[in-house]
C-alpha cells in the first residue's frame, strides 16, 4: 500500500479525538468525525510530498504535538467545561498560585493520549526498510487531491451555514464549544489563533446600531440617593461555597450551623446561581461588581482591566460612599490592583495590610481575614462600601489537622473530605465575623451581603458528592453545580425570609442599588426585590427563567436545545423556553460588546 505510514497516522489521529470525546463526555457524531478527518487531511497532506524517511519523522512529531494539545484541552475542560484559547495567554502568570487545584485534574488514564507514539514508532521500525515506489507526480496528485477533498468536506458545511445565516457563524459567537462542534478540533484552534492575531488589528469602533443597543440599558434617570438611605454596605464573597452545603448534615453534623442560623435574620435566596466561567473567582467578582457577563475565554481582570464599566463601587462613590476592597493575597494577583482602582475603589487592602498569621490554603485564614477586614472597615469614612474576598475554602481544600472538626467516616474522596472541613471552618469564621459586627454596633443599620463565588469542582455526574446528594437528572446536576448561597441582611431589619425567586450574581449590584435608592445605569441584571422575573443566563447560552431551565445543544445551530421544568426535572416542549433563548444570546453579545470594545468609554466620549 502506498503511503502506509500516512494512513496509519490518520487512523491514530482520529482515534485520539474520539478518546478526547470519550474522556470529556462530549458528543462525537458522524458529521463531527468527517469534519475532523477533513481538517487533519488538510493540515497533513503536504507531508506526502516529502521523502519517506523524512515524512515518517514529521508525522511522528505531528502526533506528539496533537497529543500534547489534546491532553491540555482535556485537563482544562475537566475544570471549566471549555477549551483552551489564545486569550488565556494573559492568565498564565496567575496559574502558579492555584496550581494545586489543577493537579487534581490529571488522571493516570490520560497517558493513553501518548500511546499512539509507541504504536507509530513500532510501525515505523517494522517498515524502516520499505520504500514507496511513488513518482514525484504521484506525490503531487495524492497531496493535492487529499488537500482539495479535505478542504471541500470542511468548507461545504460552513458555506451552507453561512448561506442560511446561522447565528453561530454570522454573529459574534457566545460559546467556544459551539465553535468546536461546528469547526472541529483543528478548525476551532485555527480560528481561535486567527482571532487572536486579528485582535491586534481589530477595529474597535462602536457602530450606531451597537450604541443604540447599549443605550437601551440606561434608564436615563438621575442617580440620586437621600441621606437617610445611606447605610454602610459590607459584601463578602465566600470561596467555592455551594448552596448544597446549607442545611446539609454529614454523619449528624451541620456543615454550616452559622449560615443556617443566619437565614432567621436575613433574606435567603436558595434558587440563586453563580454565572462564572473561565475566570472563576475573578469572574464572580466582576459579575457582582459590574452586572455584566464574563468573557467566553479568559478573565476580564487580565484582558480588559483598564476599560470603562459603570460599576457598583463607582456608582456608590458618586453617591458619597468611601469604597474599599479587601483580599488577603498579593496585590497584583489576577490584576486586582489595576482593576479595583479602575472601577472606583478608593482603597485596596491586600496581603501586606493583614497580619502574618496562620495560612489556610493560599492565603491568611478566613477568621483573621474577616475580623481584620472589620477593623479596616472601621477606619473608612461613613457611609462606606467594603468588599471582602475570602479564600480559605479554595481548592485543593487543605486545612491543618488541628482545625479539622468533622467526623467524616465513610467518605472516600479526600478532596470531598477536605472541602467539607474547609467549608465548616469558613462557616465558623463567618459566625465570628457576624458576632464581632454585632458587638461593634456595625450590624443592625448596615446592609450586609454574603454569597458564594462558584461551585467546588466536585459536582460531576457520579461523583461522591453527586451520589450523596442524589443528583442524577440534568436539572439536579445543573443545580448542584450552579447554585450558590445568597444572604442579604437589610438595614435595621432582623426578620428573615426565604425568597424562592431565581436570580444570579449579575443581579447583586442592581439589588444593592435598589435598597439604597440608586438607579443603576449600564447594568444587565435587575433587582431581586422587584416583582419581575429574573432571567439568569450562563456563558454558553443556558438559562433559568421562572420554573424552567434551558440547556442549549451546542452541536447544532443556535436556538436548539432542551427545555426542562425544574420542579419535576422532566423535559417539556421547547416553546416553554423559546421566548428567552434569543434574549439570552443577545444579552451575552451586548456584554461582550461593552467589554471588548470598551463601548461605555466611547459612548461617554461621544456625549462630550
UniProtKB/TrEMBL annotation:
Pathway: Cell wall biogenesis; lipoteichoic acid biosynthesis
Membrane-spanning intervals of the chain: 7-24, 30-50, 57-77, 111-129, 141-160
Lipid bilayer topology: Multi-pass membrane protein
Pfam families: Sulfatase (PF00884)
Subcellular location: Cell membrane
Domain Sulfatase N-terminal: 231-518
Keywords: Cell membrane, Membrane, Transmembrane, Transmembrane helix
Family: Belongs to the LTA synthase family.
Protein name: Phosphoglycerol transferase MdoB-like AlkP superfamily enzyme
